[in-house]
Design a protein that fits this description.
Largest sheet: 6 strands, mixed
Strand order of the largest sheet: 1-2-8-7-6-5
Strand content: 15-25%
Helix content: 25-40%
Shape: globular
Number of strands: 12
Order of helices and strands: HHEEHEEHEEHHEHEHHEHEHHEEH
């Protein structure tokens, strides 16, 4: 275990991970392979001023689809797989990202979810990846009853620049690690890798909405989801819009749950994006309509278009929602 950063252990920390896997340890070989393959993946690896490892996957480095797939699997804490497949469900946009995990709640909510708000002066990002579970500063981790005790922390940032040194110091303090034990992977939404890793959140979005709807997380046994690859575009708002629309209007998910069919049917009925009041226009248009205030948008919009909830106890599957090809085409161009 690395020496703790000064003052980091002075505050209470959630209980340990018990018999659940360490997302930090699970992701370590993925990060090592990414670094070893950096040249052929067209990513740039360097050391920051405090000794932190920086991996540019799409800012100044060109990156690409494969780099995005690697980022997405690192976001999942090494507990999932992201593949590119061809699908007839979206005929004009046939290439689809499919996500499956070994432990959907831990992989998606405990690691992939962009839940850690990080900022310093004009730099602001939401942190994803297994490093969130090492810090465990979000209330969600108390609910999950999970904290990672890996001796390294890895964060994925949707950004065109690495975190500034003061923010690195803050993250080191929160994780209880020295900066040389931190790794930051970053790529903007406008890049190929950034676009891929955002769309690969299609399963996580479904899990997060199920949590928002107060469906018991312990009843979600497994899940699989897919969404069409969003074509990148240089404008940030347009790029953000396309990655959201890939999920909102083109995403498909199947969740496998336990319990009674009434609750499973209710989850299926409420989960699709079309239940949101703001459904019906490309996301970039919705974003501009609310003056660029992300938090004024109906949060129920952030979910897949088409949903199947299969109850493992009864064998009954509940279907709801549908892909909206017209709105997908309006967004993608």
């Amino acid at each position: 275990m690395a020496e703790a950063h000064e003052g980091a252990e002075s505050r209470p920390r959630p209980s340990g991970r018990g018999d659940r896997p360490s997302v930090g340890e699970s992701v370590a070989p993925l990060v090592a392979t990414l670094v070893a393959d950096a040249a052929r993946l067209r990513v740039a690896v360097s050391r920051g001023l405090l000794g932190e490892t920086l991996i540019d996957a799409g800012a100044k480095a060109p990156g690409g689809i494969e780099a995005g797939l690697r980022l997405a699997e690192i976001c999942l804490g090494g507990l999932g797989r992201v593949t590119v497949e061809s699908s007839s469900a979206t005929p004009r946009w046939p290439f689809t990202l499919t996500v499956r995990t070994f432990d959907p709640v831990l992989a998606c909510l405990g690691s992939q979810y962009a839940g850690w708000s990080l900022s310093h002066e004009n730099y602001f990002v939401l942190g994803s990846g297994p490093g969130r579970a090492r810090a465990a500063v979000e209330d969600l981790f108390a609910e999950l009853g999970y904290r990672d005790d890996s001796d390294r922390a890895v964060l994925v940032l949707e950004s065109d620049a690495p975190p500034p040194p003061p923010l690195v110091e803050k993250i080191a303090a929160e994780t209880g690690l020295t900066p040389d034990r931190l790794t930051f992977l970053y790529a903007p939404t406008q890049s190929l890798a950034g676009s891929v890793q955002v769309v690969a959140r299609v399963l996580e979005v479904a899990l997060h909405k199920a949590h928002t709807l107060h469906f018991p997380l312990e009843r979600i046994v497994d899940g699989i989801a897919s969404a069409p690859m969003a074509p990148p575009v240089p404008d940030f708002v347009a790029a953000m819009g396309r990655t959201n629309d890939a999920i909102i209007y083109g995403g498909r998910v199947q969740l496998f749950v336990t319990g009674d069919d009434v609750a499973a049917a209710d989850l299926a009925a409420r989960l699709p994006s079309r239940t949101a009041s703001d459904y019906g226009a490309p996301f970039a248009e919705i974003f501009k309509r609310f003056g660029g205030d992300f938090y004024k948008i109906d949060p129920m919009l952030f979910s897949p278009a088409s949903v199947i909830v299969t109850n493992l106890d009864s064998g009954v599957s509940h279907h709801a929602g549908a892909i909206d090809l017209a709105l997908l085409d309006a967004s993608f161009g």
